[in-house]
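Why do we bother with a discrete structure alphabet at all? Because it lets us treat a fold like text: something you can write down, compare, and reason about line by line. To make this less abstract, here is a complete entry for Diaminopimelate decarboxylase. Read it the way you would read a sentence in a foreign language you are learning: slowly, and without expecting to understand everything at once.
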Amino acid sequence: MLTSTQPEWLTEPADLNALPPRLWPASAERAADGVLTVGGLRADDLAAEFGTPVYVFDEADFRARCAEFRTVFDDFDVYYAGKAFLCRPVARICAELGLHLDVCSLGELLIAVSAGFPAERIVMHGNNKSAAELATGLRHGVGRIVVDSFDELGLLRELAAEAGVRPQVLIRVNVGVHADTHANIATAHDDQKFGFSLRTGDASTAVATAHKADELELVGLHMHLGSQIFGLDSFEVGVRRVMEIRARFLREHGVSLPEVSLGGGFAIAYLDHHRPSTPAEIAAGLREFTRRSCAELGLEPPRLAIEPGRVLVGRSGITVYRVGTVKDVAGLRTFVSVDGGMSDNIRPALYDGLYTGVLASRRSTAGPMLSRVVGLHCDAGDVVVRDDHLPADTRVGDLLAVPSTGAYCRSLANNFNQTPRPPVVAVRDGQARVWLRRETYDDLLALEVE
């Protein structure tokens, strides 16, 4: 078989049955007969009970990571970024463990409220918040609103005056840093839609306008560099620039802005050779960048906040598929088709996301086979695992599990080709609970009005 189609980073694994710890939930292991187990439950039993594809979510793994962040970032406000994956049980776990919550749509806000999440620990994001969304946030008393544009600033002032409340706001600053990540998830360089530009002076104008607005209480600044960011260099630059705005505001208005949110975007490992920063490394770096910048600028350090999403939830989820066809293209690779695809994980198509996969229903002693795991959709971009080695005896009916799918897979799931979305099944201590049921064809047909 030709190997010219194989990327340089892809090497044949020593053990095709291995489960690299940095990719899988803490409870993932293989039973004596080789079947993958998560949360004490077998993949074949889960597939038989709940069907495939199925998102399997290790609740204990998620709880442990949330607790770790609360401990490591004990002097920060830690906001779970709900856009990564949000449902009522996730919101309740975050509330129970003392986390705050970041929502960026009316739907996310309503899920949080319906779960009983304390509104005062919610921050509202979004570059185009509607009047209904802002009014709902004001009615429920959300703790922070991140203002993203002058139009929103004016609208929020009107709505706050009508409601007779004075919301606490942060100004989102576009700090002009192009983080080293995919273009679609780099959110702090000039040529994109988020925040007030530092380069043009809009950021300083917005801060001054919010400060003078009687209807609002300006409490600080916000930045967000992007998503899936390895390393901390871009954070060092961003922190310095946002602290310079604080220094300028203090000089001009005699007021020290007490809060700064540094956003999220911390990377996780999708492949075994990925080496993201640890929570302890991230916390130490952000503290040092802040301390150094404030010391040089003569500022008191602010209360810091972060908004981790993927790094909390990504590794807690896996997706289990069933193989439907195996097609060898001589001289290139073998295409392994599964019963899901870009409707349950659009990240490979949208962000060039890279994943790996393993046989989940048995152990194999066969040699490696250069493979591409593809979905069932009528689109050539329907790829689940672009490049990987699977056992050469992979066959129709096998179960295949893809790790690190807890973030942005169910959140971005769609109905392409009129495909119902899979369920989310939480596992813990040998028990399974359906957090989100499988969408049905009746659900899809119920949208038809004629």
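What the structure line is telling us, in plain words: Residues 233-253 form the longest helix (21 residues). The chain has a mean pLDDT of 94.
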